[in-house]
Amino acid sequence: MYRDNSLMPKEAVRLVVLGTLIQGGPLRYADLAGAVRHFLDRMMGPSLDLMGTSLEMLRYEGLIEALDGSGMEDNALLGPTETGRVEFDTLMRANVRAPSADGLNKLVIALKLRFLHLLDVESQRDQIDNLVALCETELARLGDLKRANVGSDGHFASWLDRDIAQTEERLAWFQELLARL
Questions:
Q1: Which letter, b or e, does each residue of 42-62 get, where b requires 16 or more Cβ atoms within 10 Å of its Cβ?
Q2: Which InterPro entries match (predicted)?
Q3: Which of 24, 41, 107, 171 is most buried by a 10 A CB count?
Q4: What is the pTM of this model?
């Protein structure tokens, strides 16, 4: 993890793998690899940062295990270990960084929402509270930027208005989700 306790790209991949197995149950090696690749490609597009973690490495680290067979060569059925379940819980509780151009933030938020229901209700509330705070911080940042650029020429102000509106919509959605929990 980064120093601010937020996920690095390889940890986001771990979260996809572990969450997929915990949510859906054991999967064949090829099916798991395909599901992980499909989700990551659709969320972020091709990314060298996300291609480095192999299922074999997660097996070696004791996070997933072959329930039959031995691995890729015989398309083993894979499932999470107890250590993997603990790692999943740790990764789900990680902080979310402020939005960035690399798309990792969007991926981490998507993963939290995809697997949020696997946590206890209090942990779910904590994670949504963190996302609410993230939106509020983002709105403060964007508002400050807008105030600093009042009266400027060009299209920046209207683009900022659009970004602010989207962030306000996200904030309202997270607040509604929190109220439903």
A1: ebbeebeebeebebeebbeee
A2: HscB_C_sf, Put_trans_reg, WH-like_DNA-bd_sf, WH_DNA-bd_sf
A3: 107
A4: 0.77
